[in-house]
Structure formats: structure tokens, C-alpha cells
Amino acid sequence: MKAEIIAVGTELLLGQILNTNAQYLSRELAAMGIDVYFQTVVGDNMGRLQHAIELASERADILLLTGGIGPTQDDLTKDALAAVLGRELHIDAAAMEQVEEFFVSRGRDMTENNRRQALVIEGCTPLPNETGLAVGVAIAQDGKFYIVLPGPPKEMKPMFDRQAKPWLQQHALTDEMPIYSRMLKFAGIGESLLEDKLLDLIQAQSDPTIAPYAKEGEVSVRLSTKAASEAEAEKKLEAMEAKIQERLPGHIYANTDMPIEQKIVEIMSERGLTLSAAESCTGGLLMESITAIPGSSAMFLGGFVCYSNEMKEKLLRVPRSLLEGEQAPGAVSREVAEALADQVRTITGSDFGLSVTGVAGPGDSEGKPAGLVYVGLAERGKDTEVFELRLGGNRESVRVRSVKTLLYRLWLRLISK
Amino acid sequence: MKAEIIAVGTELLLGQILNTNAQYLSRELAAMGIDVYFQTVVGDNMGRLQHAIELASERADILLLTGGIGPTQDDLTKDALAAVLGRELHIDAAAMEQVEEFFVSRGRDMTENNRRQALVIEGCTPLPNETGLAVGVAIAQDGKFYIVLPGPPKEMKPMFDRQAKPWLQQHALTDEMPIYSRMLKFAGIGESLLEDKLLDLIQAQSDPTIAPYAKEGEVSVRLSTKAASEAEAEKKLEAMEAKIQERLPGHIYANTDMPIEQKIVEIMSERGLTLSAAESCTGGLLMESITAIPGSSAMFLGGFVCYSNEMKEKLLRVPRSLLEGEQAPGAVSREVAEALADQVRTITGSDFGLSVTGVAGPGDSEGKPAGLVYVGLAERGKDTEVFELRLGGNRESVRVRSVKTLLYRLWLRLISK
């Protein structure tokens, strides 16, 4: 099965917004075993929109259209598809009720154009919108399958996941078994080393298939398999996860999609452990990552950003002899990272204390090269560990990777118990 | 003039990467007065790539291709374009020298496939790559204009800005005067109010044209004008900026593209002023934003993340009477925001002290609703100000907008001197 994604909206062609929908749907379709050969973006223009739909109907079996189903006269996606298919539009009663209720519940008058959000194509399966007002459309004609989804990602994603995906499984992929997948999340390993270790499995396109994804400081692997039942799929996914786990012990921190800081918040909250941090070159990024996780207040007490030497001394009682003078190791050193981690743990009274000190760049600092970073891990009743990192990349990259590396070390410590 | 952007790469169709290049080029082309009617994404496949180029040649005057010009056998963009144009490929001497030098300077052997990065189409203008190895291509044929750019944004952007854009001005837009633009950056105002205030100017498509852009907590307006000379353009841009400034006094913090924290770092560094911060619900995001700016170490001393009540008392000496007890205003209050700002300024000895305390959500906290946030601004020798914010949106949105609002207040204070 081949699919084409058509994103509709002049704001995309003006570059005012980024087409994240195409990426999301491409990943989902790949995991369902459906090939995407083209993605198209077209504006809110009836003629060009119909042209794009006709063209895609020639080159693909499944068409996914996103956007252009709101209340305004610019929103033409359903009109264009109906015209290409030679069908009429009508108001869907359930969707209309939802639109009306929305306005009643807010005590606002509904303007006439809002009725457009309840339009569907005759003979289609309406796709309810759980997080917005515009109803979606799924329809099959002449062996082709058409799906219309809203533009805003927070409406598009749930409608695809819960409405369109099962519809496609049932109507377009009838000859094929459903696909099940699992996301393995890795820490403390780069993309190239990971690929290297799994190369034979990736290239064999074995069952389950293995697809690695990388972004700054984070690597994930998606396992996908076709199976007659969920139980059968789980068995295959489990076995492959175990195989990968064996090759890369101590790197998989989760088998669902979440950042490592969320895993740490979960583990520490569960065990009633507390955390604090002292940051120099990362300037708050470490604490920000942790406190971005809902529920982190159960385990995160607080901490310091000690950007200047004076603050390291004043707020965290780092001895001046470590910071200044000819014999001093200086702010970017193993000794200072250790002192910061120890002190923040002691001052806050937390179970664990983290520290980062380094040169984020651009440029060297106090004779130390950009990318040289020391991260410290203190634990009540244990020796404090310090890790020296030599990172490439720009300021942002050095900061992100310092944080991810330190979180990895903390996670390793937590699971070693 | 109509343009089409073709992004080449199977990794885009698998959803492994996001097509940020299309957004960037669309914005740039819009500012040059060129309409983009379609964006297309196609994989690393010779047949489909040629089909996409032929199709775009029919519907547009200018084709921009990104990606698929690296060293591997998968990189087919130049081959496909050469085939469609009926031209040969040959090695560009200057580009080849650059590739060879790269390997010599790193003491590595150059593998044969790297020669592919120096390939150009006969009769083209080669576009030098200042930040990578693969050379770009600009060529005109039968009244159509073709540009080939690298896929990685850090190579694509400089090549477009410094090579492709002037080439297009010179070859494709000969009948038109060049376009000049200026980015106005706003703080303390939402997109809808801004549009409202400028609606007549936006709709009139006056000269200069006005295009607003919004992202979380930030609004920008791009002014563009065609002019025979830069001096003439500057005059028109200046006049329109003054007109907008008059309608929205105290909101334009810069007329080049930069975040407000950068403006603050610049002003404070220049005047030798120093800053510190105490964050509760934003958990480090404020300090992280400031320290993300290179050079911030000149003005930012440090600060605290005091997530728990205990830490507010222990680290920042907030009186317990404010935090706990029936009569206490509680951690999320005007009084605590004031105490935090005062204390962090006093403890660090900085000229200015910032504070944030609130409920980021999801869900209420201690009887206060999600989105209720107090931000404090202390200055040496001045009364401390506290602002109450009632923000909508999710946890991330509340955090970002709290930070942006506080930075806006600080900027206002700095420019009022």
C-alpha cells in the first residue's frame, strides 16, 4: 500500500507554521507498514487543491489530507475532495450537536459559518473530533482510501490515532495483519554506535523490524511487528527487546516514549527519594528539564545556578582555594564539580545532588576548551562521582548533552540498587 | 513569479526528520515577493525525483531543491535534475579542492564517493558551501530557474542567503526591484491584539508590507519593501517602523530577529548591571533562557530554584509566616513573589532580582488555580513590583509565558531610564 500526505494551508506555504503533521503521519504510516512516496503542501485554493488530490489519487492508494476543515470560507478541503469524488456534502447530525453544545456551554452565540465544521461527504464514515469542533472524514471509492483530518496537531493526532488508524486497518489493510509497535528509549549511547551494534538486525529487516531515531542527546528505536493478536505481538516484541537489551545492557531506560527525566522522576517519587542540583554552564537547563515533568515536585527540592565564581563561593561554599590562584584547579574542574554536588546535597538535605560545571562556548574560557564539562553525582552516604565530558557542537548542543549525560549517570545509579 | 520547493530524502518520508527547510525557504521567498504554490517531499528514488522535478517545472517558474547532494549513492538530486534538463554532470575544480583539503586537514583518507560532493551540472553557476562540503547549483533553462541546495539546515541556510538569493535577484527577478526587509520583535502583547491594532495596514498590503508571525509568548512583524537602493528601502522601513511604534509604544524591543533575553543581556552588559533570579514554578526556565545567550556571564550572577516551601524558607529566607498557617498568603502569592525577588537580589548582591511563583499545572495546587502566577521585579534602591498573571494553556505554555512576561517587565524597566 502506498500513501500520500497532503497538508492544506496557505500559512504553510508562507512559512508561518511548520508542517509537523506530515512528520507525525509519516512515522505512523511507516509503523503500519504503509509506504509514503510523496508529501505535498498546497494552499487554500480550490483549483490547486483539487489538482493535488487528483494527482495523489493517481500515484497512491491512500490519501491523508490535513487542515482546511475549520469554519471559514478559506477552509475548502472537504469541498475539494467532494468535488473530485463527485459527491455531495451534508451536515453530520452528531457533529452539529457537538458544535452547538460548545457554544451553548460557553454562553456564546454560534455564527452561521460554524456549521461548516459539521460538514461531511455523503457515504463517508465521519471521524469524531475529541479535542476540537471540526469533524473528520474517511471514505473509500474506486479502491482508493481518503482520510480528512484537522490541521491543529492537538486535534489531528487523537483523531488519527483513535479514529483514522482503526478505519484504515479495517478497510484498507484488510489483507494484512495489524501492526504493533514498541518504542525503546536509550541513554548514554550515540546513534552511530547503537546502529553499529544492531546493524545486522536493522539490515535484515527482521521481524520485528527495527527503526532507529535520533535527536540531540537522545536515541530511540521503534520495534514493529505484524501479528494476528496483541498477545502474539507482545511476545515477539518482548523477545526482540530482550535481544537488544542483551547487546546493549544498561542503556534502555524505557520501552514507551518518554524522556529520561520522566523515568527518573517516576523512580525517585516511587522510592521517596529527593534531588537537588547546582548548575554552572548549563544555567538552569538541568533543573528546567526535571521540573518540566508533572509531579516532579514530589522529588525535586530545588537548587542553584551559580554562574560566577563569586556565587559558587557564596551560595555553595566552594573554597576559594579551588577557584582562584595559580595552583587552583579552577571553576571548570573535577574538584569544583565534586564540591558543588556535595554542597548542594548537604545544603538542601536531599538524597542525591547533581552538579555541572564546564565551558559551553562559543570560545574557550580560563584556558579551558569549549566542550570540556565536569558533571558530579553525590549521594547520601556514598562517595561522590565526577565524570569528565569532552563534547563537540555549539553552545546549545554542549548544554543539552551535558544534562542528558548527567541524567543518564543518575539513572544508572538508581537502577543499580 | 511562482516557486515550488522540493525537499528530497527518504528520511523525510519516514518521518525521521522534520522538513524545516521548506518553512525557512517559504518565508524567505515570501519576503522576496515570490509566491510558493506547492511544497513537495520526495524520496531518494531516481524515477520519482525526476517526476517531481518535471511536474514542478510545469507549475512553477522557480524550483528550489534541498537535500540529496551528499557523497552516497542515495544522493541523486543533481543526477535527476541533470537528466531532466538533458545536461551532463562534471566535477567543479574549486569544490573538489575544498573536499580534498577537508580530508587532508583532518589527516584522513578521502574515499572515492566523496568526489560526488563536488559534482555540478554543465553550464550552471556553482554555489559554494561555506559550512559543509557539497557544492550547490543554480541554473536557468527555458525561462525556468533551478536551485539545488544541501539538506542540513546549517549548510542550506547560509548557501541560500549568501549565494542563491543574490543569484535569483540577478537572474529571475531582473524586472523587479530587490526586496528589503526588517523584523520587528514585540513583547507584552498577544498576536490578536497586535493584528487588531495593525489590521488596516496589514490588509492594505501597504508599502512596506506587514506580515505578523507568532509563536508561544512571542510576536514578530516582518516589514518588506521593494526599492531601487538600500538607502531608499531603509527610509521606507524606518517610516513604517515609526508608525507602528507610535501605535504600540513600549512593545518593540528590537528591529532584528532576536529573543528578548538577548536584548536584556545586551543592555545590562553595556551598562554594567547585574541580574539574579529565584524561580519556583518555572523551575529554571528563566535562568536557562538568559544563560543560553552567549556573553550572559557578564551580567548574570546566578540564582535559585526553590521548588518546595522548605527551600523557599531555607535558601531564600522567606518567612514561614508567609508560607504556612491559616492566615498565610501561601507560596503562590504577591507577598512571596516580593520576598523572593528582594531576597535573591540581596543574597547575590545583584542590581536586579527576578522571581516567579505560581501554579504551572496540570491541576490546581493549594487551592490556587493552574495558570495563576506572580512574577516579581526587584531593583536596588527601588520599590519591588509584583505582577499577577492569569494564564491559560498547558504546563509548558504557562511556564514559557510566565518567563516571557517577566522578561518584558524587566526590559520595560531598563528602557524607562
From TrEMBL, chains A, B:
Signal peptide: none annotated. Residues 4-171 form the MoaB/Mog domain. SUPFAM superfamilies: CinA-like (SSF142433), Molybdenum cofactor biosynthesis proteins (SSF53218). InterPro entries: CinA, CinA-like_C, CinA_C, CinA_KH, Competence-induced_CinA, MoaB/Mog-like_dom_sf, MoaB/Mog_dom. It comes from the Bacteria. It holds the Pfam family MoCF_biosynth. Belongs to the CinA family. This is Putative competence-damage inducible protein. It comes from Paenibacillus cookii. The gene is cinA.
